[in-house]
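call fold target=RND superfamily putative drug exporter
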Amino acid sequence: MKPVDHRSFPLARLVGPRRSIVVVLLGLIVSGLVMAFAPEPTSGNEAGSNLPDSAEASRAAALLDQLPEADESPAIVVYSRDGGLSPQDLQALGERAQTLGSELDLQASPPVPSEDGAAAIVAIPVKSGLSNDENAELVDRIREVAKQDLPDGVTAEVTGAPAVQADLGAVFDGADVRLLAVTAAVVAVLLIVTYRSPWLWLVPLTVIGIGDRVAAKVLEGASGLFGFEIDGSITGITSVLVFGAGTNYALLLIARYREELRRHESRHEAMRTAVGGAAPAILSSSGTVILALLSLLIADSPFVSGIGLAGAIGLVIAVAFALLILPSAMVLPGRWLFWPFVPRNGDDDPSERGWWYRVGRTVTSRPWPVAIASIAVLGAMAAGALTLSTGLGQSEQFLDTPESIQAQETLQDAFPAGISAPTTVATTPDKVEDVTAAANEVEGVESARPAGASDDVAEVQVVLSVAPESEQALSTIEDLRSAVKDADPDALVGGPDAQALDEAQTAADDRLKVIPVVLVIVLLMLLILLRSVVAAVVLCATTVLSYLSALGVGWLLFDHVLGWSAMDVSTPLLAFIFLVALGVDYNIFLTARAREEMALTHDATESIVKALAVTGGVITSAGVLLAAVFTVLGVLPLVLLAQLGVVVGFGVLLDTVLVRGVATPALVALCGRRFWWPSQLSR
C-alpha cells in the first residue's frame, strides 16, 4: 500500500493564507445569524417523560381527560406539628383554608385531619393546563399564603402534582448558565495542563464554545419548528456532548497539527496534512456517535428519543466547528501559538521516547498475560451489574429534597401512603360499581371509590396502602390491573404508580430494541474505516465489556456508598449509547493511526506501538477531559444526571487507559497480521 497524500483530503483545501481568514469570518457570521434568528423552542411539562402515549397509564389519563374536572390537579397543603395538632390548631387551619380560597380565588377544602391527629391536609384544585412559569408562580403564592399566621409550632408544606412540577422546574433555574460556566472552566483547566501554553487553549475553547451556543440555538429552533419538547436535562446533556466530543476532536486535530509542524516549514501545509490525517478518524468516530444517537428515535420513551435527536444535532455542529473553523483559526496566529514549546521543522518526535511508547513496548512484549489480566479486571468490574436495579421513586429523583417531596414524606407518615398521588381507573358508568368492588379486594389497596363520571367514562380513585413507586406498589398495580379487567376488560389503570410500572417496562423494551441496532452501527462503521472483520469485532467487544464494567462499578457505588435504591430507568440505555459510541472513539483514533503505520511498516506489533506512542498522550487528555465534562452533569441536582455522569465518566476513563492503552495493543500483538483480516494489510 502506498502512503496517502493527506493534503488532497477535501476539507484540507479550506486551509490557506487567504482561505483561512474567509472561513473564520464566514463561521462567525453564520453563527451570529443562527443565534440571532433561531425560532423559539417548544418546552412543556412532559419533556422529561419516559412514558409513551401507547402505555396503559397514558391511555387511562387520555380517557379521564374527558371528565368535567379533568383539567384540574390538586395542590395539597400539609399542616403538621410535633406531638399532633390540637383542636385550636384545626380551627385556625380552617380559617387559613378560607383565606387561601379567597386570596387566591381558588376552591380550598376544609382541613382534613389524619386519624392520629399528627397532620391535616387542605386540597386546592389547580388548572393543569398552565405553563411552567404560571404554575410555578401560583405554587409560590400558595406556599406564601399557606404559611402565614399559623399557630406557633405548626408547619405548612405544599405537595401534589403542581408543586412537584414547580420544584422540578426550579432545579433548572439558571442551570444552563451554571452548567456552561463549570463546563467551560473544566475544559479550560484541562487544555492549559495539556498544552502548557498561556494562550493556545483559548482558540479551541472559543471555537467549541461558540459551537455549543450555536447548537443550543439550533436545538431550540428545531424544537420550535418540529414541535418536540425540550427541558433542562435534554439541553444539559446536549451541551456536555458538544463540549466533550468537540474538544476531543480538537485535541486530536491539534496534536496531529503539532506533529506535522515538525515536518513542514509552512504551517498551512502542516495543517492541511493534519486535517487530511485526522479527519477520517474524526468523521468515523463522530458518525458512529451520531448514528447511535439517531437510533434512539426508535425508542418508545419520549425523553430518550428527545435526547437522541438533540444529541445528534449537537454532534453534527461540534464536528463542523472542529473540522471547518478550528483548522483555519489555528493557523492564523502562526507557530507562536504553541509558545513556550514551539514545534520547529526538523525537530525530533518526542513520542519515540515517551511514556506511551514504553507502555506499548511493555504490553506487546507479553501480550498473553496482559490480555488475560486486563479482560479479567474488566470482567470482575462487570459482575457488579448482575444485581443492578432500576426504577427511582419520585422522592428519589432529586439530589436535594425539595419541599414537595418533604411534604409527601410527612403525608405518608400520617395518612395512607398513596393519598398524595392516588391511582386512577378509567372505566364506563355501567361498570363502575363492579370495578370499585374488584379494586377493594386487591391486597395493598387502602380504599377505592367512584370519583366522577360523564356519559361515556367513569373514574374510580384508588388509594394504596404501600409506599408510592415502591416494589410493593408496582406489584399492587399489576394485581389491580388483573382484578379490574375481570370486572371490565376495557378498564385502564393510571396514576403515578402505574406510570412508574409502565416506564420500567418501556425502558426494558427500549433496551432490547436499541442496543442491537447500536452494536450493528458500531460494527459497520469500524468495518468501513478499518476494512477488517477481526479488528471490528475485537474493538466492539472490548468497548461493550468496558461499558458493563462501568455499569457494574457505578451500581456498586450508588447502592453501597451513596445509598440510592436503584438507577433511573433511562440510565443504562443512555450510558450504553454514550460509552459504546464515544468509547469506541479512542479505539478508532488508535487503530486508524495503526492502520496508517501498518501501510508503512508492514508489522502489526510495530504499527500499534507507534500508534500508541503518537496518540497516547492526546487520547489520554481527551479521555480525562470527556470524563470530567460528563461529571459536570452533577451540578444539576437530578439523580438521573448524576448517575449518568458517574457511569459515563468512569467508563470513558476505563476506555482511555485500560482498553485502549493496555487491552487493545495486547490483542493486536496476539493477532498479528490477522488483526487486519481480510484487508490487504493482513497479507
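return ok
The beta strands are 72-80, 112-113, 119-127, 155-159, 423-427, 445-453, 458-464, 492-494. The chain is about 65% helix and 5% strand.
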